[in-house]
Amino acid sequence: MGNIGSSGSNSRRRHGGGGSGRRIHPPPPHPPVIPPPEVTANRFAYPPAATPYHNYPGYYPPPTTLPAPLPAPYDHHHRPSVDPMWGRYPAAPAPTPTPYVEHQKAVTIKNDVNIKKETLRIEPDEENPDRFLVTFTFDATVSGSITILFFAKEGEGCILTPMKENDLPSMTVNFQQGLGQRFKQPAGTGIDFSMFEESELLNVGDDDIYPVAIKADASSGDPDESKSNETSSYGNTNSQITQAVFEKEKGEFQVKVVKQILWVNEMRYELQEIYGIGNSVESDLDGNDPGKECVICLSEPRDTTVLPCRHMCMCSGCAKVLRFQTNRCPICRQPVERLLEIKVGPETEE
């Protein structure tokens, strides 16, 4: 019985019963739950600035604001890597400036005598079967003389010196004014190939000695006087020099032109072939270079040559714009060093 009474009194004290018992208060309410900050699409989301950070040595709180990431440029072929720190795409490299190409105008030089190099041949000497004679076609607006030299070396002032004069002496023939003239070396003055090694005939020798050289001198005076001057010095005020080597095809020797030089008013000019200059003034077209219009605008006539490839393919207007945009030839894509404007026609002659 005592145990029951005792438990009853304890029960009353726990529920607040009885005057002498201690009152038990209910537990305090829980603090309100603060939801975490919402994470947006921006990968750099930080707590509000009012939230306290732990303050202990070596801890540095992150910045409260950062610049928004820039939109990535769309590229069909390449996607640049993302910077792991800032989340931005790296800046595109600055474009490389196009090299400046010089634009020049050609100066007209009058050539009184012109040997057509594509007509240069050698023919057997009918009177001397072991010798061969040099033949070609040439144009001359004045009278003058032609000199044939074998194994000749060019010196200062375009003076040609035969290096084997004892074996093959040079010879000179006078000519009169006229176009389309045919020249043939006199009989008995040709070359005998059996007297020399093939290596001497097929290549340019040391010190630029050419197996065959042809010098055409123009003179407005007496042809006999021109001949006497030519015999003594091989030089004159207006000359054209054609230097060539021999080549062997199917067991027979042929002539191959290597270089042509103009000597005008004590100035030396080396002639270069220009591709397309014929179509700029003629109506006949060939399959390799159709049309005579500029390859860029397709309307203006061609008058500008690309050097060093020597393609005459543009008008001067397009060439002036092109030199600031690219340094490649529109035809062969080779690097351009210079642009040369050439006005072809009778009005350019001086």
From TrEMBL:
InterPro entries in the cross-refs? LOG2-like_mRING_C3HC5 (IPR045195), MGRN1/RNF157-like (IPR045194), MGRN1/RNF157-like_N (IPR058981), Znf_RING (IPR001841), Znf_RING/FYVE/PHD (IPR013083)
Q: Give start-end ranges for the coiled-coil region(s).
A: none
Entries under CDD domains matching the protein = mRING-HC-C3HC5_MGRN1-like
The GO annotation for biological process reads: protein ubiquitination
According to the UniProt entry, its GO molecular function terms are:
ubiquitin protein ligase activity; zinc ion binding
- Name the record gives this protein: RING-type E3 ubiquitin transferase
Q: Where is the composition biased (Low complexity)?
A: 1-10
Q: Where in the numbering of this chain does the RING-type domain appear?
A: 294-333
Give the pathway listed in the UniProt entry for this protein.
Protein modification; protein ubiquitination
Q: Which reaction does it catalyse?
A: S-ubiquitinyl-[E2 ubiquitin-conjugating enzyme]-L-cysteine + [acceptor protein]-L-lysine = [E2 ubiquitin-conjugating enzyme]-L-cysteine + N(6)-ubiquitinyl-[acceptor protein]-L-lysine
Signal peptide limits = none
| Gene name of the encoded protein | Vigan.08G278300
Which Enzyme Commission numbers does its entry carry?
2.3.2.27
Cite the PROSITE patterns for this sequence: ZF_RING_2
